[in-house]
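Tokens in:
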């Protein structure tokens, strides 16, 4: 629709969304904050609330770390998800909720998370903030734009040497064009692996939705020996959208 919009609308609205994480911090007391900048594709700063520029921008923040002796992320930001089918409650990695935003001006915002890192968190470990966002332009009949970003750092300072970069987004995009999930707002493997960790289970089926297992089950499930016998891999959890193989 944006392609066919008239010139005046494009000049005013300019569809699209660019998101950049400028900085992140995990303080010794466990408090966490992330600084982000949002612009349109031409670099014009956007108003998060959509008052001074077209379209409100919704942003969600995930915070996770990689143990120095581990390979997978462990998310600080989690939720309790209860299945209406099994009545089982599972802990799942998810976005933070209940934090606060501060407008720094020029399209830059600081989000202070409600979630706090434990007092004994490892300040030498790689920490990552992930932000996924959507810009709602449906009032202009131009749909919704999405963007995601991640920021790796070591709270104690120093260079990041440990990352989880097993499958690159470009590899997924070779088939999926733009790899995305949950309505399109989560984009890129770098964001996906922050929540799809071994700690996250689908309470409806009891199956893990760890990225390693889930990806292989969905893409190569029928080739795996444990698939023989007819039992399929299923996950229902997020928004009750069923996936199986």
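Residues out:
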């Amino acid at each position: 629709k944006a392609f066919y919009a008239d010139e005046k609308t494009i000049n005013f609205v300019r569809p699209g969304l660019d998101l950049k994480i400028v900085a992140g911090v995990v303080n010794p007391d466990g408090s966490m904050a992330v600084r982000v900048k949002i612009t349109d594709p031409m670099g014009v700063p956007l108003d998060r609330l959509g008052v001074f520029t077209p379209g409100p921008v919704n942003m969600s923040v995930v915070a996770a770390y990689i143990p120095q002796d581990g390979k997978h992320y462990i998310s600080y930001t989690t939720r309790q998800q209860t299945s209406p089918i099994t009545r089982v409650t599972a802990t799942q990695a998810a976005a933070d909720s209940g934090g606060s935003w501060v407008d720094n001006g020029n399209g830059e915002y600081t989000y202070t998370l409600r979630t706090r890192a434990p007092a004994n968190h490892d300040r030498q470990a790689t920490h990552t903030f992930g932000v996924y966002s959507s810009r709602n332009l449906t009032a202009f009949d131009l749909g919704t734009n999405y963007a995601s970003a991640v920021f790796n750092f070591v709270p104690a300072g120093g260079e990041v040497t440990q990352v989880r970069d097993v499958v690159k987004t470009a590899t997924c995009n070779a088939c999926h064009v733009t790899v995305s999930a949950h309505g399109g707002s989560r984009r890129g493997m770098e964001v996906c692996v922050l929540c799809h960790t071994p700690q996250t289970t689908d309470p409806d089926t009891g199956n893990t939705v760890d990225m390693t297992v889930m990806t292989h089950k969905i893409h190569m499930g029928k080739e795996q020996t444990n698939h023989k016998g007819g039992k399929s891999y299923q996950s229902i959890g997020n928004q009750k959208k069923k996936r199986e193989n």
